[in-house]
Design brief:
Radius of gyration: 16 Å
CATH class of one domain: Alpha Beta
Order of helices and strands: EHHHEEEE
CATH architecture of one domain: Roll
Structural class: alpha+beta
Number of strands: 5
Number of helices: 3
CATH topology of one domain: Thiol Ester Dehydrase, Chain A
Strand content: 35-45%
CATH superfamily of one domain: Hotdog Thioesterase
Distance between the termini: 5 Å
Largest sheet: 5 strands, antiparallel
Strand order of the largest sheet: 1-3-4-5-2
């Protein structure tokens, strides 16, 4: 692997989500809040419809970095700010897109800045992954 430089894009990936994805995630996580699978409940609390779980979105966002690193143990810290929900349409679903770019490099590793979007909007703000320097 070549040396890292600020601005390098190290990973890009898109994740299609469906209502089935949300049900499966609910089962795996134990988060059965009905705003993640029932439009009527989501709308009754003022939401436009069913939303993807925030932690699902956060987990998907870091996956391209883990794939690039080849070792999840090289992730030293990961933080995000939830800025907008991901609305999952019952018929067309949703697509979350992640671009991972080197934001800073030092002797111990790097800060990878994530741009996480749904449609034309950023859904995670200040999404940053601190990683140990990749071998190479």
């Amino acid at each position: 692997m070549s040396p890292l430089a600020v601005g390098d894009v190290v990973a890009e990936q898109s994740f299609p989500l469906t209502r089935d994805t949300l049900v499966r995630y609910a089962g795996a996580s134990g988060d059965f809040n009905p705003i993640h699978y029932r439009d009527d409940v989501a709308q009754s609390v003022g939401l436009p419809g069913v939303l993807a779980h925030g932690m699902l979105t956060m987990g998907l966002a870091v996956q391209p970095v883990i794939d690039w690193l080849g070792d999840p143990g090289k992730v030293l810290d990961y933080q995000v700010k939830f800025t907008r929900p991901v609305l999952v349409d019952p018929e067309v679903g949703a697509v979350v897109t992640v671009v991972a770019k080197v934001g800073a490099v030092d002797d111990e590793g790097a800060r990878i800045d994530l741009t996480v979007t749904f449609g034309d909007q950023t859904v995670l703000g200040k999404a940053q992954v601190r990683v140990a320097r990749p071998a190479g």
